[in-house]
Amino acid sequence: MNRPWVASLAIFVAFVFIWHALTSIGGGEIVVDPEYAKLMGQTVGTTTGSSIPGPMEVARRAMELGSRAFDSSNPNNLGIFWHLYYSLGRVFLGYALAVVVAVPLGFSIGLMPWLYQALNPFIQVLKPISPLAWMPLALYALKDSATAAIFIIFICSLWPLLINTAAGAAGVRQDWLNVAKVLGLKTSTKVLRIVFPAAVPMILTGMRISIGIAWFVIVAAEMVVGQNGIGYFIWNEWNNLQLSSMIVAIGLIGIIGFVLDQALAWVGQKLSFKE
Question: pLDDT for 119-133, tens place per residue?
Answer without folding.
Answer: 889 988 988 888 888
